[in-house]
Amino acid sequence: MKTLFNFRNLLLAALLITGYTSLAQTTSTTKKEETMKTYLIERDIPSAGNFTAADLKAISQKSCSVLKDMGSDNIQWVQSYVTDDKIFCVYKAKNEDLIREHGAKGGFPVTKITEISSVISPATAQQ
Questions:
Q1: The dihedral of CA 65, 57, 109, 79: what is its sign?
Q2: Cβ contacts of 111 within 8 Å, gap of 6 or more
Q3: Neighbours of 108 (CB within 10 A)
Q4: Residue 66 · residue 106 · CB < 8 Å
């Protein structure tokens, strides 16, 4: 009886060690995924506030085409704000270089890139 008990414990220990080793190998070889950060991009574009709906549509289509080629796992456009002489864009990207690459491929100026560290709104006051 004692031999059967020891054998069962030994078998259980072997199974646990095998499972743990398998898990450790899987985790250690898995590539760490880079998370996307949120950025505010400032683009100096003279007379941007005078763009027509057709102009803005064409710019949007060009941007979306470039983004599709770059892959949504790397960079995503959230939205943009058009002012008199600038366009401010909010993007999610793995790094700033991808935003510069998007600008270069699309022909969009990139004047300044700022990583957004926090977002607040009127709802923040209620929390």
A1: negative
A2: 42, 43, 44, 86
A3: 18
A4: yes
Helix (H) / strand (E) element for 77: namely: strand 75-82
pLDDT at 42: 98
Q: CA nearest 62: which of 8, 103, 112? A: 103
**52-93: per-residue pLDDT in tens?**
999 999 999 999 999 999 999 999 999 999 999 999 999 999
Strands 75-82 and 86-93: antiparallel
Exposed, middle or buried: residue 101 (CB in 10 Å: 0-12, 13-18, 19+)?
middle
* 63 closest CA partner among 75, 52, 49: 75
Look up residue 35 and give its two tokens. 């998370």
Q: Is 102 helix (H, G, I), strand (E, B) or coil?
A: helix
Q: What is the arithmetic mean of pLDDT over 87-112?
A: 98
Question: Which stretches of 30-72 are DSSP H helices?
Answer: 53-70
- 84 CB-contact burial (10 Å; exposed 0-12 / middle 13-18 / buried 19+): exposed
